[in-house]
Structure formats: structure tokens, C-alpha cells
Amino acid sequence: MLPALVGGYLTAASPPPPLPSAPAAVPSPSARFPPRFRPASCRLVARRRAAGAREEAVSAAAEGDDEEGEEEGFPSWEGGNGEEEDYDHDPEIGDIMGDYFDDPKKAQSRMEERIRKKRHKIVQAKTGSPNPMKVVFNKFDFSNSYIWFEFYNALLPKDVTLISDALRSWHIVGRLGGCNSMNMQLSQLPLDCKRPSYDALEGANVTPTSFYNIGDLEIQDNLARVWHLWVDIGIHEPLLLDILLNALTTINSDHVGIKQLQFGGLEFENWNEDLKTEEAGYSVCKI
Questions:
Q1: What pTM was computed for the model?
Q2: How far is CA 15 from CA 5, 12, 19, 97, in A?
Q3: Which residues 6+ apart lie within 8 Å of 180 measured at CB?
Q4: Between the CA of residue 151 and those of 134, 159, 206, what are the distances in Å?
Q5: Tens-of-pLDDT digits for all 287 residues of the chain?
Q6: Strand ordering across the sheet containing 217-220
């Protein structure tokens, strides 16, 4: 009877089979220990994780700024490999600047070497004339006269552009009254004046001078004149001519050799009034 009782007891006491369940999550070190009693290793891990999060945030912000700059039209620079068309169109410069922060002396040495090798391209030789430009006045009238040019050689297209741009700039400054010798307040100050002053009322009350009109540049071979029969300055103002002569003097010495410049006169050298075709070397440039 004892075996029966024991068998029945064991049968009754045996627990039901356990149900399948998900494995229990391992508690993190921060959950097992209060903040005050966390081991040093746990605190170190936490700090490293926080630092990593901050670095990711900074990187994301920097990428956002780069994208915003590109959207606003600012070029981005990724290196000096020459593939970024918006940088400087010069991969060598990009490569040199990329080394600047790592080794400034090396970058400076490379830049100096580049200048020595490419000096002939960076520093352009003068192409003008070593001889001074001859200036002649022939019955010149400020209100109605030609300005004649004689060059050493026939003008190239770039020479025509330079001369016409100089005349155009001269006309604009004169047309705006910028060549008024009656208002030379700063030029009349002593050379050692350290605090110059300008009297706006005096400047506004001087007699105005204006450059009224100018024609186009008419060219025949190595000769040229301001076309339309006149340079109408409108008032006797020698400062206008000084400014033009200063500009043409530099053009003669540095860019295009000007053999002679004549103010006034209806005839000049071999100028042919009947020559009006491009085949014969005649052209007109708008001023």
C-alpha cells in the first residue's frame, strides 16, 4: 500500500510541462547598479557612448552645412585631385593648399617652386614700345576735333579692344564730371597731411564740366582716329586731356606701341578718306 501512496503522491505533485517563453533579457550594467554604485568600467562605457553620440551629431551638422552651402551656390572642396571644376581649375594649387595645414613650410616651398617654373606665364612681359609717345596739337578745339593715332604696327583685335576700352572709360569719367579741375581739394592738400578733409558744399557749388559726346574708333591699317568728326568736350578743361595722355602713355609702354598722338587737324599721315572697305584694312569699333 505504501508504494501506491507514494506513486500517487508523486503523480499528483509533478508540475505541468513548462510553456516555451522568450529568453530573459540580460540587465544592463546601468540597470543592475544605481548611479552611485556603478562600476568604473560601466561609467567609462557610458562616457564613450555619449562622446560617440556627440561626434555623430557634429558630423551630421557639418554635412548639413555643406549641403546648404552647395545649394546656395558655394563650391565645395574635397581635395586637390583636379576633378572639382568649381574649385580653382588648378589641381596643383589644390594639392599644395591641401598640404598647408600638415606642413606649412613644405607648402610654401612648393608654391615658390611653382612660381619660379611658371614665371613666364604669371608675369607677362611688356609688349609696348620703349620709345616715348610723341604728342602733337594741330589747331585743336575742345568743342570739335579729331584725335589721331599712329601705331608702330597694324592693330590686333586685342589691341583694338584695349584702345576702345580706354577711350570709353575716359568718356564715361568725363561725362560724369569727374575731370573738373575746379574741384581739386584733395590734390591741393599738403603732402604731409594726415587727416584730409573734404568740403562737400564747395564741391557741389563749383562750375560743372561735362564731356558731351565722342564718336567711334575708325581704323586704317596702323592709323586710327576718333570717328564722327569730333570729340565734343564742351568746355576748356585740360585735365581731361592729361588723364587720357596718362592712360595712353601706359598703354604705349606696356601693351601697344603708339608712335604718335595728334589732337586736332583734318588730315593725318597717310589717312585715306575714300578707304572704307574691310578688305583694304578699314574697320570701326564702337565706343
A1: 0.57
A2: 18, 8, 12, 79
A3: 206, 207, 208, 209, 237, 239
A4: 11, 10, 39
A5: 444 444 444 444 455 555 555 455 555 544 454 544 444 444 544 555 655 666 665 566 555 555 444 444 444 444 444 444 444 567 777 777 777 778 888 888 888 887 777 766 555 667 889 999 999 999 888 777 899 999 999 999 999 999 999 999 998 998 888 888 889 999 888 888 889 999 999 999 988 877 778 889 999 999 999 864 445 555 667 888 999 999 999 999 999 999 999 999 989 989 999 888 888 889 999 98
A6: 134-137, 258-263, 147-151, 223-226, 217-220, 282-285
**CA dihedral over 37, 40, 42, 44, signed as positive or negative:** positive
Quickly tell me which residue has 564741391 as its cell: 203
Amino acid (one-letter) located at 176:
L
Question: Rounded to whole angstroms, how far apart are CA atoms 146 and 272?
Answer: 15
Residue 232 backbone phi and psi in degrees, to 5: -90, 95
| Cβ pair 209, 180 in contact under 8 A | yes
Distance CA 108, CA 136 (A): 51
